[in-house]
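Justification of resources, computational component.

The compute hours requested in this renewal are based largely on the per-chain cost of generating structure records like the one below. Each record pairs the submitted sequence with a full structure-token output. That output is archived, and it is also reused by downstream analysis tasks.
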Amino acid sequence: MLAPERHELILRSLRRHGRLRVAELAAELGVSAITVRRDLAELDQAGLLRRVHGGAVGTNPLGAGQGAQLTLGIVVPNSTFYYTDVIRGAEAVAERYGARLVLGVSGYDVAVEAERLEKVLGVGVSGLLLSTALGDGRAAELGRWLDDIDVPVVLMERAFGFPQVRREYDHVRTDHAYGAMLALRHLVSLGHRKIGINLNPTVTTYWLRKGIDEAASTLGIELFVSAVELPGRGDERTATGELDAFLDECEAFGAHAVLMHSDEPAARLIERAMERGLRIPHELAVIAYNDETAAMAVVPLTAVCPPKLTLGETACELLLRKVKRAPGVTAATQHVSLLPELRVRESCGSALADRI
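The structure output for this chain reads:
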């Protein structure tokens, strides 16, 4: 069967059913799934249908009475704190273009993420914004599932590439390594040469470590990265021992400044340091990474603030340019890196000369 004949049969079946699946079409036409996907791609470029995960839908899948509102998927590890602003930014851009978002939340669980992706893609989205449960440090665990998504994908806060994936993906991410350098450079400007580091084990830590390693050689400073696990949200009451252990490490190392990821343990560290008689920032300067609740600490925390809202906006704009491109027009793959900013507050506002 020639391609034009297959195209006609595909369009007839689409008018009849409203939605097509690759596996069913391949069986019906007696051709391979690869051939069907190629046919759907050609018909999509011609504007005669719209490819979605696993098949295709009509160019007006919602029906003439409702209008053809563009639908995009967004799957993120959580919908609170860090990703609240990311989602808000993407949603604002989607609304501006008359599109809607369908949200899936994985809870940093790979199995849950697979289910969320299947449901979000199953509603017939035209494109996907994705921040996977797997960070860049775990890219080897990806397998091939990402390459099997057959709608445009823009990665958020992830930068997967060859050999973990077969093709290059658009991504928008914060340059967290630069953020770490920014914080340490500020502490050096205040006269600190020995600095303690404590990092929560999160996806962001992978990039912070890269920035910290670069800063150690570039700035010529002495750093130690503590292995003490400090409390996250909700478990501060039992953390006195861990906080004391980290403060003891700082004292032994001669560090009067620390960089901490993230806000909550940094705020608790300040409280414990003050209970031990240390003056903030004169005897201990503290910078937090994330700036979600840093301003509300007992001593407002200087913090590195990733551009979360801008990240969501930029990623959604990039996806929409790909989804709304004219038939036959390709869009170049883009890797966008956004710089965080340092918000200086009372927790590290004085130079060493002012400590006495």
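DSSP finds ten helices and 15 strands in the chain. The CA atoms of residues 161 and 216 lie 27 Å apart.
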